[in-house]
């Protein structure tokens, strides 16, 4: 067994290597965030069974708590997204920062960036999470720089703020009015915003009476719990053997899902787009495009025994319902073997319509969205929605609307 000195040296070497990699990949861009990653011992805040190699991996989220059904309810984000969110927040020494979603590690990183004259308030709805975070932060020497509170942050943090930056580390379907109320006039809000089932971590600043995006990052998070939790609707379809395909809707649920009864017994339709993607090239913005511009969009999952599951590796969990059919995103190798062609397969009597509708949007993304970067806005309910630029796409939320704009689309 390695002795304690060897373990400390190995952790230090891995910590330095992680910081080097994050800087080289452009995830860390400021000296302050780099210094934080070279200082904070990640292993101190993770379960003892987590190896140092996992702790210091670039893309290794670690689940720290599950509910009675085994669903993750608390986790430590992957190092790359922690670095990006700190950079998105534009942190500076002396700031007061709110972290929503506790655990200890991210709060320690924030504390290092804002320095001894800054302050961090870390909030979580789960007292087991906050109790442990408080112990870990105290033992790591951050007790006087981080305040840990158990509360439902959706309703605000009483007797705290205003905050120069708020970093939300759980997926949220909306922006709580309290978060804006407790944010300074020039403050930054960074949060993983769920938009019709697709999440982007967005940095927002105020622009008059609304918010405008300053940065975006691709990442996934455990969902927010409490008053602001995201409500979804599930539609379960069953095949002849009792295996299930589940469609998950976030917004704009089709009116008559009853038309999908026995749809898995219907012949399958397949349409290809002639849109190709080279290997090792991300097309994640296509998923975002479909979520915004494809009426009836939903997320798709399938039991292992289904025909769908048997196509493992050729389909993606993004679907659309059109009348008496649903279609889902698929890919097949290009003839030259250098990439894949995107298309859609569909089940149901309206399979041609469903698959064709998805393929039309794949082609629209290729034409108008593929080579540009979208920008986002958030307009609270009490803002002047008449000032939303013409042609901008709008997604309704409970406390306001989210907007997206692809430069080439308009």
Automatic annotation (TrEMBL):
Q: List UniProt keywords, sorted A-Z.
A: Cytoplasm, Methyltransferase, S-adenosyl-L-methionine, Transferase
A Pfam family reported for this protein in Swiss-Prot or TrEMBL: PCMT
Q: Which family does it belong to?
A: Belongs to the methyltransferase superfamily. L-isoaspartyl/D-aspartyl protein methyltransferase family.
Enzyme's top EC category: transferase
| InterPro entries given in the database record | Methyltran_FxLD, PCMT, SAM-dependent_MTases_sf
Q: Where in the cell is it found?
A: Cytoplasm
Can you name this protein?
Protein-L-isoaspartate O-methyltransferase
Q: Which CDD domains match?
A: AdoMet_MTases
Entry annotated with the keyword Cytoplasm = yes
Annotated GO molecular function terms are: methyltransferase activity
| Organism of derivation | Phytohabitans maris
Q: By its UniProt entry, which SUPFAM superfamilies does this protein fall under?
A: S-adenosyl-L-methionine-dependent methyltransferases
Q: What's the encoding gene here? A: fxlM
Q: Would you kindly state one Gene Ontology biological process term found in this protein's UniProt entry?
A: methylation
Which PANTHER family does the record associate with it?
PROTEIN-L-ISOASPARTATE O-METHYLTRANSFERASE, PROTEIN-L-ISOASPARTATE(D-ASPARTATE) O-METHYLTRANSFERASE
Tell me which EC number(s) this protein carries. 2.1.1.77
């Amino acid at each position: 067994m390695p002795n304690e000195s060897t373990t400390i040296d190995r952790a230090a070497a891995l910590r330095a290597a992680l910081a080097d990699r994050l800087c080289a990949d452009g995830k860390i861009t400021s000296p302050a965030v780099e210094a934080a990653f070279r200082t904070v011992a990640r292993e101190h805040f993770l379960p003892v069974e987590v190896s140092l190699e996992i702790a210091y991996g670039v893309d290794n989220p670690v689940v720290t708590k599950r509910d009675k059904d085994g669903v993750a309810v608390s986790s430590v984000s992957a190092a790359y997204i922690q670095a990006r969110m700190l950079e998105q927040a534009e942190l500076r020494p002396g700031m007061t920062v709110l972290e929503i979603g506790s655990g200890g590690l991210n709060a320690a990183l924030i504390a290092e960036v804002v320095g001894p004259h800054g302050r961090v308030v870390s909030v979580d709805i789960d007292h087991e999470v906050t109790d442990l975070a408080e112990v870990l932060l105290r033992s790591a020497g951050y007790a006087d720089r981080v305040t840990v509170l158990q509360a439902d942050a959706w309703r605000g943090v009483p007797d705290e703020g205003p905050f120069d930056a708020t970093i939300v580390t759980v997926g949220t379907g909306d922006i709580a009015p309290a978060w804006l109320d407790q944010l300074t006039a020039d403050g930054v809000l960074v949060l993983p915003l769920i938009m019709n089932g697709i999440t982007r971590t967005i940095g927002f600043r105020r622009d008059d009476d609304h918010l405008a995006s300053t940065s975006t990052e691709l990442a996934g998070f455990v969902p927010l719990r409490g008053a602001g939790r995201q409500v979804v609707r599930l539609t379960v379809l069953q095949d002849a053997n009792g295996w299930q395909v589940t469609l998950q809707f976030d917004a704009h649920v089709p009116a008559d899902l009853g038309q999908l009864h026995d749809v898995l017994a219907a012949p399958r339709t397949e349409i290809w787009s002639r849109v190709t993607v080279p290997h090792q090239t991300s097309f994640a913005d296509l998923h975002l495009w479909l979520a915004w511009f494809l009426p009836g969009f939903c997320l798709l999952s399938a039991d292992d025994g289904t025909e769908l599951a048997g196509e493992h590796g050729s389909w993606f969990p993004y679907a659309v319902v059109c009348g008496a059919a649903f279609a889902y995103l698929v890919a097949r190798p290009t003839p030259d073997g250098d990439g894949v062609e995107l298309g859609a397969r569909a089940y149901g009597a309206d399979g041609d319509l469903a698959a064709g509708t998805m393929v039309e949007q794949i082609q629209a993304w290729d034409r108008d969205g593929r080579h540009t970067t979208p920008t986002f806005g958030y307009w609270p309910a009490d803002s002047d929605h008449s000032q939303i630029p013409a042609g901008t796409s709008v997604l309704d939320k409970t406390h306001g609307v989210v907007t997206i704009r692809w430069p080439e689309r308009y």
